[in-house]
Design a protein that fits this description.
With 238 residues, this protein is an all-alpha fold. It has nine helices and no strands. The protein has helices at 3-30, 41-59, 69-77, 86-107, 118-125, 134-155, 164-180, 190-202, 218-237. α3 (69-77) packs antiparallel against α4. The radius of gyration is 17 Å and the shape is globular.
């Protein structure tokens, strides 16, 4: 597989791995009778950081491995990718996130019926606010994604030894999770939230409760705003 098709498939497979490992650590911490149950926020933050790192390593040889519509928007704005790839990349990311979430459901299949906490089940798939305040929640997601995209753009101006740039990306995700993840669960990625939220809606989990669609726009709008601001600031910097 070569050319645009390879890049698009790379976005699908990379985002699938991202969600499989990222929602996987959330499942490990949240679900009843998991060996990792209750191990806490630091484990989740490290797990998501490693999920991004492994996903980028797996998909990076096929294309840019954005794995995030906000990053794709920023890279299209800067000319790093063609606008013709914008929609195909995002669709591939959303589909990959959906499939990754379904794989998490399969991996933890006996644990869903053992878990009665609807918030814990939804939190395995999608993000939610610690305090529901939509303007504040959007601001948090905007700031988190601003940091993410600005750092990624800056990394592009930095010389890394072969492959070490991927570990820098993982460290970036870890920093974002530890420092900015408390208010909203740091989606900082519309596909990361929307794909698994759709999976939560569709999957036959008897104790799952609502998918909280009233909140679902926040992890879409906030990250896209943050990406645009990051590009504007980066253009001033350079």
């Amino acid at each position: 597989m070569t050319g645009d098709n390879a890049q698009i498939f790379g976005e699908f497979i990379g985002t699938m791995i991202l969600i499989l490992l990222g929602d996987g650590v959330s499942a490990a911490v949240n679900l009843n009778k998991s060996k990792a149950q209750g191990s806490g926020w630091i484990v989740i933050a490290f797990g998501w950081a490693m999920a991004v790192t492994m996903a980028v390593f797996i998909a990076g040889f096929m294309g840019p491995a954005h794995l995030n519509p906000a990053v794709t928007l920023a890279m299209a704005m800067t000319g790093a990718i063609s606008w013709s790839l914008f929609v195909p990349f995002i669709l591939a990311q959303l589909l990959g996130a959906l499939v990754g979430a379904i794989l998490v459901w399969l991996a933890y299949l006996p644990h869903w019926s053992e878990t009665k906490d609807q918030g814990a089940i939804l939190g395995t798939f999608a993000t939610g606010p610690a305090i529901r305040n939509y303007p504040a929640n959007v601001i948090t997601e905007t700031i988190g994604t601003f940091v993410l995209v600005l750092a990624l753009l800056a990394f592009g101006k930095t010389d890394f030894a072969g492959g070490t740039n991927v570990f820098a990306v993982g460290a970036l995700i870890l920093a974002a999770g530890l420092s900015l993840g408390g208010p909203t669960g740091y989606a900082i990625n519309p596909a990361r939230d929307l794909g698994p939220r759709i999976a939560h809606q569709l999957l036959p989990i008897s104790t799952k409760g609502t998918s909280d669609w009233a909140y679902s726009w926040v992890p879409i709008v906030g990250p896209m705003i943050g990406a645009v601001i990051a590009v504007l600031v980066f253009n001033v910097m350079v």
